Fold these 2 entries.
Entry 1:
Amino acid sequence: MQGAYRDGARVRAVEVTSEGGGRFRVVVDGAELQLTAEPLEAGRLRIVTAEGVAIAEVTGAGNRRFVRLGNLDFVLEREAGSRRRASQADGGLEAPMPGVVTRVLAAAGDAVKKGQALVALEAMKMEHLIRAPRTGRVKRVNAKVGEMVQGGTALVELEAEAAG
Amino acid sequence: MFKKVLIANRGEIACRVASTLHELGLRSVAVYSEADRGALHTRIADEAFALGPAEPRASYLDGGKLIEAARKSGAQAVHPGYGFLAENADFAAAVEAAGLTFIGPTADQIRAMGDKRAARALAAKAGVPVVPGAEAADLAALTRAAAKIGYPVMVKAALGGGGKGMRAVHDAGELAEAVESAQRVATAAFGDGTVYLEKCLERPRHVEVQVLGDGRGDAIHLFERECSLQRRHQKVIEESPSPAVDEALRARMAAAAVALGRAVRYHGAGTVEFLLDRDGSFHFLEMNTRLQVEHPVTELVTGVDLVRQQLVVAAEGALPFTQDQVRARGHAIEARVYAEDPAREFLPQSGELARLRWPHGAFVRVDRGVEEGDRVTVHYDPLLAKIIAYGPDRATALQRLTGALDEARVHGVVTNLPFLRALLRDGAVRQGAFDTEWIGREFLAGFTALATAPAPELAVAAVALAEMLGLAQGAAPASGNGAPASAPDPFVTLGHWRHPGLG
């Protein structure tokens, strides 16, 4: 009974074992918690640990899990396959946020230098430049001026890095 | 008074304007783009008219469509809210030309104040101190002017506002890029790429004065708002009164604001923004010819409904009360709740508000644009709501706002609530000891470290437990939110995740 959640830049491994009677053994990144958990209404959970009682409120939204614990909020994301990592390995340059493409500064076949601006996105009141992470050749540009893009959309793909 | 008013806006401000219309027994007409079909402001209004595609230029910025909707609905007046066409002189003129009333200043006043250079000249003429600055036609001339003013300088769009197109430049090497970027943003946003320079005051505070003018030369003020807590020139927390302003300074700033209002025969509600220097001198920044986002703090301390006064001035051309009748009492503080991720450089967020609960305190006001189940899209400003608390003094108001922010639940879309909560607990904020650059200079790094720290193990455990117990059911994955729909679900493939004993 194990799973993993992305927590910002980290991946958190978690393993839950039910010990009956609402008692659970939960191991998060190797740290063990002994607790009892009682489901309340609407995604709320009453958790009792050796240190005390906490009410957690958990809401799912796509792969995201929003959790309120005490007066703090956290957002975790269920690890769901390796597609994102594969895309980055391909040299895909993703939109860091939803926005509108304002300028396309590179075309397929262009040789680009590391740090060179490839696409400009306007989100809210700021212009964000998507820059080449390394020197290489543009394989494909998936952005058009005026186009609305979602965060995570691969806007530019670079050719695989030549060996040597 | 009008019988029916079209609200040429969306989100929380459209909802807020509708409330006053309904209170006065007037009919409200909402407008919406395709992205806002069924949005809260359309549900609150008596009628709603579709404008067109999500892109602002094809909907909320299309004056022709707005006037057409007003005509069709039989509205006699148009309230522009803030943003979009609120400070567009051509729109104000077109509304009037169509035989409708524009609830706001005259087109000429909008034009004069919208051109920040012309506004500076008007302020100076009215005896209001202005920030040293310069205009120039090209980069070479701007470079010479910047050297003369002395770095750092601020590059501003002549037709800018709300920080749009504004860039601080610390040395000559940065100027070209800043000017080019400001010109581009200004051209895209305002259709005019003209920029000018202003000297950057060191660690100034932003204090603004609310004014009301009858359009015939009389104007009054409704005291000041302190808006120094800003991140990249975007206000985050606003309050009234300012903890940095004493009675004598308040009187001088208010007199300057009223002098400008009278000089231009200002019509309606407006705000004169000042930079307050550390030596107690203040300088005209700009005049906003509209209702401000932060107007509720003024409403709470004065008991005056500013939207109602806008309607009265527009309909009757007279101020409903005199300066002597305006009193400020107590303290009000507002926090802006945005759909943006404070742990990831405040990137705007979208998605469905799977769980949403606004606070319910006795001295708490929530101006909201969304309810649970609504979607937040990428098309518009990500402001979800403003939470405003009132108290007899600043400490009480702060305590109430802190409690209200803790009480708020927004799940499904990442918000800046953790940022606001941390901000209000900071010692400098509690003492009122900050300036417009304080967040970026002294608060942000520490906050970011905190926001990007690992979640406590108990939080991770709670999520896993909720999932195991089948409690975390929420919104379906939003289309295109980056979550690959076809990816294997680890909690399905790990079939034994659900313990048989839990049935």
Entry 2:
Amino acid sequence: MSLEWMFSIVENNWHLFLRAMGITLLIAIVGTIVGAVIGFIIGIIDTIPKKQTVKNYILRVINFILTCYVEFFRGTPMMVQAMIVYFGLDLAFGIDLNILTAGILVVSLNTGAYMAEIVRGGIIAIEKGQYEAAQAVGMTHFQTMVYVVLPQVWRNSLPATGNQLVMNIKDTAVLSVIGVNELFFQAKSISGANFRYFETFFIASILYLIMTFTATRLLRYMAKRLDGPQAYDKKEVL
Amino acid sequence: MDTVIDIKHLSKSFGNNEVLKDVNFHVNKGEVVCLIGSSGSGKSTLLRCVNLLETPNGGEIIYKGKDILQEMKNIEAYRTHLGMVFQQFNLFNNLNVLENCILGQIKVLKRSKEEAIKTATTYLQTVGMEAYVNARPNQLSGGQKQRVAIARALSMNPDVMLFDEPTSALDPEMVGEVLKVMRQLADEGNTMLIVTHEMQFAREVSDRIVFMDKGVIVEQGTPEQVLTAPQHERTKVFLQRTTS
């Protein structure tokens, strides 16, 4: 009976599963955070007001490079990106990345490309009035972004960021092609030893589900915290 | 009388659409000036040109003897002397009422937090919103938001307050509370430039009324001169339409 098998698989391999979950979470979380940072940086650069100056030409060149980056990482499979980053960098430039570093790098760059679009959209969606009000009190573009626009963009893009985190938890599975010791890779090697593919991967799927479910709940909680209390305390007026 | 803002030969186009044509106009210290006219007459654009939210195509904006358009580098410093109140309130959505009123003071005027809070509290009292310091903009009614917006502008201690149709986005019941605050500011001797459709309010509060039509100032004068005995045909037609 497969239920017995499941118990025995868990009993014999729990430390391997746990370790693999740890690596999956590490890659997904670090990748999402770094990706979000990349996304915000690109979004900010992309929405700098364009003026007819020399600086503008530099900006355009930077924007072109960033567009290439975004298009490449959105338009190619992460599995292929993993092969290119891990094996390609070694072959072409002699950069020998540690497997885990390569995995985190791939997920970060991939997330960054998606986050750039999310942040860009978020910045564009902020009403013009917010910028005008900030300008009217004498704030510079940079101050406006830091104190008024980006906090709102951050709040509004939190659900999308959470979505990215969930996707990353699942998509780390493709990093098994370069031998990252994450949950899918571990399940494959365990099932390769016991030939109980269904049971082993069923356990893996439950573990993925636990991670993604927890991630969505945590992010929802974070969003609520950011929104502050639903009601305000009215101060006593003397 | 001291002229605070002197506008000379101001012009502004959006593409081929000439919105302001050679506008000459000034605001004196302590004066309350109302800009009236039909939609599309250029009155809001004129107001927005004054604090450079719109960049004029030509002319001069002279503030304390200096042509601002010649020294475009210091727009931010110039803007701190003008308090702007928008039709859509435009409170910073990510900040509560108090934070809205202190952000500019701290980041732009470099006041200390204590000083900023003190100033903000004073003006929140002026507009009767001191009880709501912890509230976020989305928890307030339109009239309350606009009063906070007025307090935010006043907190910067501007020389001139600019109002861009401050009651046009409000429910009729809430218009009164905002106009009451503005009336009080006028009585306290603040310099105010107001774009409005509230004729009765304009009549009561202004020292001078400016009627605009199709991008030019058609006539200006005391409320009696402009509203009771208008000289120009266009002013008469406009007033008939708004009062009937």
